[in-house]
Amino acid sequence: MEISVQQTIGTDYDGLAVALFSDEANLPTELDEKSWTAITTLQQQQSLQNLYSSEMLLLEAGSPATRLLMLGAGKKDEYELQTARRLAGVAARIFRKKGARKIALLLPAGSLNAGDVAQAFAEGVMLSTVDSTLYRSGEKEKAAELEEVVLIFGEGGEQIRERAARGQVMGEGINLARWLANEPGNVMTPERLAEEARKVAEINQLEFDALDKARLTEGGFKAILAVGQGSVNEPRMIVLKYKGAGENQPYLGLIGKGITFDSGGISIKPADGMENLKYDMSGGAWVIGAMQIIAQLKPDINVLGVIAAAENLPDGNAFRPGDVIGSLEGKTIEVSNTDAEGRIVLADGLTYARQLGATKLIDLATLTGAARVALGSSIAAAVFGSDKDWTSLFLEAAEQAGERAWQLPLFPEYSQLIKSNIADLNNSVGGGGGASLGAAFIKEFSGNLPWIHLDIAPVSRTDEKPYIAKGSSGHLLRTLVDFVLLNVE
Ligand code: BES
Ligand code: MN
Ligand code: ZN
Question: What is the pTM of this model?
Answer without folding.
Answer: 0.96
